Amino acid sequence: GTVFVVQWDKVYLQGKEELGSFTFQAALHSSGRIVFGYKEIPVPVLQISASQHPVKAGLSDAFMVLNPSPDVPESRRRTIYEYHRVELDTSRISSLSAVEFTPLPTCLQHQSCEMCVSSELTFNCSWCHVLQRYL
């Protein structure tokens, strides 16, 4: 009830199976914390060829657009647009390591007008009495 964990277990690089398998996970906590845990990283991430296996580590906001494919009318081409990326230093990813992201305070934490008005956040939060929530 307080954490959702996704694990990738025994993942091999295509065509490089002899290097060994990767096991890692992402844990999303109800408090907003995100933890990436790396159990088995058989080779340094920097040594993975980006041309064959694009490596991204970190967080980003993104949205997806589905466009009709000109070659196959029934299919759609997926394009993902990323913004506000926070990248991890991949040289620090190794077996038995973890990275934790802790959320910064935002207007979302305010549950009353008093909390909103007395907040020392640098955002321009304001409380809406009609909706009984921050804006």
UniProtKB/TrEMBL annotation:
Keywords: Glycoprotein, Membrane, Signal, Transmembrane, Transmembrane helix. One of its GO terms (cellular component) is membrane. The keyword Transmembrane applies. It is found in: Membrane. The keyword Membrane applies. InterPro entries: Plexin_repeat, PLXDC. Pfam families: PSI. Belongs to the plexin family. This is PLDX1 protein. It comes from Chloropsis cyanopogon.
